[in-house]
Design a protein that fits this description.
The chain is an alpha+beta fold. About 35% of the residues lie in helices and about 25% in strands. The chain has a single domain, classed as Creatine Amidinohydrolase. A hairpin with a 2-residue loop joins strand 2 and strand 3.
């Protein structure tokens, strides 16, 4: 479990990542492509001190926000899809600074979109629900299924099941410094892959998984540590999607969100 100083550093980086997403989102306009938005977010964060990447920024526009007809990992990469009035968008980035990691998802729409507004209101329920279930010490797989049931009752579809591993979240830890800092496979940092590989082996040996999904590997109580949690909903035939992603802190007998001073939290409270 991270100490207070570590938690402060993780929180500062998460806030920085969201500030970057807000900065890029405020400049989105019709005709901007996913590649342009993702590149702008990467430049902004690197100018503000980010020195490595858990994964580089992604941007999804229109029905790609719900991963409509995604079948292959390469479909997650930014494309030349152009933003238009009324379109939903998602910006997703996982920067590293001095070994600390953040992983954020920022959703919005360019101009009025009542369908997205309804989806976003329903998404807000999931933040409190997930925290409550983790505090009950329900197994990760049980919580995954409870979230799935809630999504269905709301009349939407589970889109985080499209992510590799069908994950709703993953464990976050400091990346070990040293070694190359370049990005491979167009998205993930070398040091990230090395650290994740070690964690995967360690957790498996202890009968746990650093990936939070709905299968047998996640059929254990919440593991103490930091978890990047990303419920992702789709609606309207998976033409509109919305998500949030932020760090959940799990202790031996409690849990709390790392930070409440985040854009989606303010938006839901003001609504």
């Amino acid at each position: 479990m991270s100490n207070k100083v570590d938690l402060d550093r993780f929180r500062e980086l998460q806030r920085l990542a969201y500030r970057g997403a807000e900065h890029v989102a405020s400049r989105l306009e019709p005709g901007v492509t996913e590649r342009m938005a993702a590149a702008a977010l990467r430049r902004w964060l690197e100018r503000h001190g980010v020195d490595d990447w858990f994964h580089v920024p992604f941007a999804w526009f229109g029905n790609r926000t719900a991963f409509r007809r995604f079948r292959f990992p390469t479909q997650f990469l930014p494309t030349n899809t152009r933003l238009a009035d009324g379109m939903p968008y998602v910006l997703d980035a996982a920067p590293v600074m001095d070994g600390y990691v953040a992983d954020i998802g920022y959703a919005g729409r360019l101009g009025p979109n009542p369908t997205w507004d309804r989806l976003d209101r329903d998404l807000s329920v999931h933040r409190a629900t997930i925290l409550d279930l983790v505090r009950q010490r329900r197994t990760f797989s049980d919580i995954y299924r409870e979230v799935d049931d809630l999504i269905r009752r709301q009349g939407h579809t589970n889109r985080h099941q499209v992510y590799p591993g069908r994950v709703i979240g993953h464990q976050v830890a400091r990346i070990r410094l040293g070694g190359p800092r370049f990005v491979v496979f167009d998205s993930f940092g070398v040091r990230t892959l090395r650290t994740v590989g070690r964690e995967l082996i360690k957790e498996r040996l202890e009968g746990r998984s650093p990936l939070w999904a709905g299968g047998a590997a996640s059929a254990h109580p919440p593991t103490p540590g930091l978890w990047a949690v990303e419920p992702h909903l789709g609606t309207d035939g998976d033409r509109v999607g919305a998500k949030f992603e932020e760090i959940l802190v799990v202790t031996e007998n409690d849990a709390f969100w790392l930070d409440d001073d985040l854009p989606h939290v303010h938006r839901w409270r003001s609504a």
